[in-house]
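Protocol step 4 of 6.
Sequence for Fertility inhibition FinO (Variovorax paradoxus) entered exactly as in the expression construct, tag removed. Do not edit the line below.
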Amino acid sequence: MTDASTAAPNTNARNARRQRPDLAEQLQQLKSGTDAGAEASAEQQQPQQQQQRPPREKKPRPQGQGQQPRQQARKPQAQQQPQRAPRKVNPVLERLFELYPQLFGARFVPLKLGVYEELIARHPEDFKAEDLKIAMGQHARSTRYLESVAAGLARHDLDGNALDPVAPEHVHHAILELHRRRLHRNPGEDLRPQLVARIAKAIEASGLDREAYAVLVRSRDANNNAVVDEALAELAQQAAKREALLRAFEASGRTEQEFADMYGMKPGEVARTLQHARAERQAPAPAGVPAPAVAEEAAPVEPTEPAAD
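Step 5 output, structure tokens:
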């Protein structure tokens, strides 16, 4: 008869022999197992999320769009030009401005002939002869001074008194020099009509007849002579229009106001044009120059404003 203790193994003894971990170790193992499982599940889910996320559509970028801001940022730097240093004013001109602000200040006027000698005599301690000559040359060649000469202003002495007007040939040459400088600044612009009109006004303001003015300003420059001829032809055409208007007025038998109203003209323009035409009729014609041709019919012509004497 078999002993019951030897026939069935004692399981309680086996369990007693196996060491059971304490509670701290169980918690540590549980925690480490949970973290590892979470990391594993996260690694498994991340590829799935990346596969499930739809790819972002790339919009076509215009060619050169990414480089445009850089180019625009560099463009102003490339276009920047070195600034010109301010032109130094001649110290002699500064001294002249201090002594005669009405002549060398904000407004330039033509100076009397011989003003250089007068300045030397008045201010021997202020100016050296050679330095003053250079400064006066710069002043006379300045655009502002040439504009005052071309306008036909009177010459002035050092006390600011107006003397005789500038000679017609000096006005003429100042106009040509200003025209040359404008052509240099605007090479593609047609400035010839303006030059012809300005010389025509200078001819009328000179008080000379057209033939005498032409003889006075003739030079070896064929182009300048051609401009004078164009101005003379323009003046002759204007004189013919004024004569035609005067004949139409005399034939109408009306007053100047009625004549202006009849043809829709301004009374003031009609009066000035008729006065100019009468003066031209009374002036003797220069030798060798025919009188301005007029139409046989006394048709009214648009009046032209005469230049100021």
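Step 6, annotate. The mean pLDDT is 78.
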